[in-house]
Amino acid sequence: SIASLPEHLLAVATDPEVYRPAVCPHCGLAGVWRHGCYHRKVDRSDEGRLNRLDPVPVLRFLCRACVRTCSRLPACIAPRRWYDWVVQQAVLLLLLSGMSLNGCARCSGRDRRTVRRWRAWLLERGEQFAFFLRSRLPELGRKASFNSFWRNVIEELSLQQAMALLDRDLVVP
Questions:
Q1: Which stretches within the chain are classed as H helix?
Q2: For residues 47 and 134, what is the distance between their CA atoms, to the nearest angstrom?
Q3: Which of 22, 94, 114, 122 is the most exposed place for a label (fewest CB within 10 A)?
Q4: pTM of the predicted model, to two decimals?
């Protein structure tokens, strides 16, 4: 629910417990320990290069049972991606509306491989994401096709809000 970088930095400094997952995302055991942090750049856009907050700290947690680590990102940072959720949302909307990869890449200014990777990510995880979103928000379930469902999600919630909801139960990337 932390939607901006200044909020994230304040939470890390004053109340880092808001990032502690209830259970380990790998084995499901409760009681993960804080395990330091790493620093990450937020995005590759021109605004990101001018951003005085980059790089930002990301808290890490260690599971005592499976000895694996996990980290928790605020909603304003897209996991395993260089670009902001808003950029990805715009590209995915173009793809869901029927635009080709090449056309979408030209229109968005992103590399065709990046656009293809984002499309593959949604196609690979989209049904699982849709199941969880429909179980939390039944009004989203009225759309029959994959494309119409995801266009509706993006128009009703936003990609960032949908992924923040999913992050409670699933590993989003």
A1: 5-14, 46-50, 85-96, 101-108, 112-136, 146-156, 159-166
A2: 35
A3: 22
A4: 0.68
Helix %, strand %, coil % for the chain, to 5? 50, 10, 40
CB 57 within 8 Å of CB 37: yes
Contact 107, 90 (CB under 8 A): no
Taking only the tens place, the pLDDT of each residue in 1-51 is 677 788 889 999 999 888 888 888 888 888 899 999 999 887 655 554 545
**Tokens read off for 163:** 């992924």
- Specify the amino acid at residue 71: S
d(CA 20, CA 33) in angstroms, rounded, equals 8
CB 4 within 8 A of CB 34: no
Two structure tokens written together for 7: 């909020």
